[in-house]
Amino acid sequence: MNTGILAYGVALPKYRIEAQEIWRVWKNISPHFFDMLSIGERGVLGPEEDTLTLANEAARQALGRSGLEPQKIGAVVLGSGTSPYATKAAATVLIDTLGLPASALTADVQCADKSGSTALWMVAAMIEAGLIEYGLVVAADTINRHTAPGMIVEYVASAAAVAFILGKEQPIARLEAYATHNHDQNDYFRTEGERYIQAGAGFYGWVANWGLLDHVVPAGQALFAQTGLTPADFAKFAVPQKTGVRPLMTMGKLGLDVMQVLPYVLTHQIGDCGAAGVPLSLAHILDFAEPGERIGVLDYGAGAGCDAWSLVCTEAISERRPQSGLVIEQLEDKIMVDYATMLKFEQKMIQSPHRLSNFY
Fold it and tell me: Most CB contacts within 10 A, which of 105, 117, 177, 266?
């Protein structure tokens, strides 16, 4: 393929909460699981933050880094399972906020946690086919707003957005190959009209991750078979990381090395970012990647399949590597809050729609 990533952008909530602060309220899990599952802090949405505001911020950063005129963007696709709209395409809002052309193909893609990867390859196919020259893809989710208080996953439920500008002209990383494996399996899901995500198969160990290996292993094996590559041919991997257990399970079943995976697992610092989780790990990898490095991506969407793909960094990455706004910098730029503040900011308390003010 000639299509690749020209630039990328990342947006993380500045507010964070410690797992121990959530445990202080609920005490619904043994604290020793925090170390075992690499659970530390997770993002908390600000009072005015949602999937779209994070997506807009990440996309604005990516556009600025690319140096492209907004009018050159031919497609805008938002990959998310937590759009603020039930039916309207939230991506159309990005057209207005970013000054993108109304002629750009605009759509939302919903494939659970792999929404961003699926959206990226759909736009890449359009570029390869010559239908458009450049495309904007954003993977964004606010899992925290859609997790009920007291659920075990509240300890990791987070939010983030990662945006990619795709094109053929001097990419910093060229897309190489793609494979996927999909079948229906109830892992985490949210039905029509419900606010909160349900856990279809528990949370811990093999029971909690039953859909993970059934999708990730066949997808990863298909990528290796299609390309003739082996795990040793890859420098680094971005893998599913709802908790610290998932990277270990993925790594063990696909024959990956610990140093190909674990340095790029961000669960302990930011939690589960949904559709932005694996793309965030990829952005962290690209922040420090070197020319010629091959990177593998395994993006599992809770019961909705797994996309496996590879990309190879070009010489351009040395010249156009971001100098500020790195993932690690945004992870460290934070304000800690308590549980009550988290409930307020994420609007977890049901209030009457007929209230006249905050004082009644």
Answer: 117
